[in-house]
Write a structure and sequence with these properties.
Layout: E1 2-5, H1 6-22, H2 26-38, H3 42-61, E2 71-79, E3 82-85, H4 89-103, E4 128-134, E5 139-146, H5 148-152, E6 155-159, H6 164-179, E7 187-195, H7 199-207, H8 219-233, E8 248-258, E9 263-270, E10 277-280
Parallel strand pairs: 1-3, 2-4, 7-8
Antiparallel strand pairs: 2-5, 5-10, 6-9, 7-9
Helix pairs in contact: 1-4, 2-3
Length: 281
């Protein structure tokens, strides 16, 4: 049994709040640079070049990659041989977000009550926290700042089992097409299939945590990822929505067993500021 004080989780969340908003992942940078050679339009190449330059400036000057520093989505994988000590875990995570967003001078975008009291909380809390108990004696902390524009373009579909694979494919491609320029392409497309109404959306968001090029372990699903990515890029939306070949940098699929009477599908779209980071305690 290993004892972990939640103050360590708080500090990890604080650091990730600043780091993920200032530094684009190396896999995203590499994908953007490679897409310059694949993009066939001059405007598209110019847009991608500006995105790359923007990320460089953000990293060098310590400023946010995007003015929308997102809703803080926190994934915690807690080893079953860990005992947490100290304060309440949820409070510790939210303190980490509050400290990071204040000290890093990040935009605060969260409204206290969406209907009766839509006042800014002032520190970008509360975070959305997903907790999973896993084998081991470490705590894995992952933060994804999720921008509002791309989140708005995401969809959930409770399809009929008879819709089958073709129905899922059509739903995924249609979702990207409907998003158009609103999701700040080139995007990353996270697809969840199976489970329940609530769980399938979590699958689609967790899909976005994969590194560019990291295919699903199932060869059949990996094949679909490549095929659907190609189809999405044939839509012609292109970088910034100005037309072109590179509408999406990647497409990931996560699946879970389903009920015989259901076929849930969720598509969570991530913008080109695909921010996420992990620390292990």
């Amino acid at each position: 049994m290993r004892i972990v004080d939640v103050s360590k989780i708080e500090n990890a969340v604080r650091e990730l709040s600043i780091e993920t908003n200032r530094f684009l992942g190396e896999d995203i940078k590499s994908a953007l640079e490679q897409s310059l050679d694949k993009e066939e339009t001059e405007t598209g190449r110019e847009v991608i070049g500006q995105i790359i330059e923007n990320s460089r400036i953000a990293g060098e000057e310590g400023i946010p990659i995007c003015q929308d520093t997102g809703f803080a989505i926190v994934f915690l994988e807690i080893g079953q041989d860990v005992r947490l000590s100290g304060d309440n875990l949820k409070d510790a995570v939210n303190r980490g977000i509050s400290r990071g967003y204040r000290e890093g001078y990040m935009r605060k975008s969260i409204l206290r009550d969406p209907l009766t009291n839509p006042v800014n909380t002032g520190d970008n809390t509360p975070a959305v926290i997903h907790t999973e108990i896993v084998p081991g004696e470490t705590v894995k902390v992952t933060l994804m700042p999720k921008g509002g524009g791309a989140e708005n373009m995401s969809r959930l579909g409770m399809l009929k089992p008879s819709d089958g694979l073709e129905g899922i494919r059509s739903f995924v491609v249609e979702t990207v097409e409907l998003a158009g320029a609103n999701a700040c392409p080139p995007v990353i497309v996270g697809v969840g299939i199976g489970g329940t109404f609530d769980y399938v959306t979590l699958l689609s968001k967790k899909a976005l945590l994969r590194k560019i090029g990291q295919r699903n372990e199932d060869p059949g699903i990996a094949k679909l990822e490549r095929e659907w990515l190609k189809e999405v890029n044939s839509l012609g939306i292109g970088p910034g929505g100005f037309g072109g070949r590179i509408t999406a940098l990647e497409l990931f699929i996560e699946v879970f067993p389903r009920h015989i009477a259901t076929l849930p599908v969720a598509v969570n779209i991530q913008c080109n500021a695909a921010r996420a980071g992990t620390k292990i305690i």
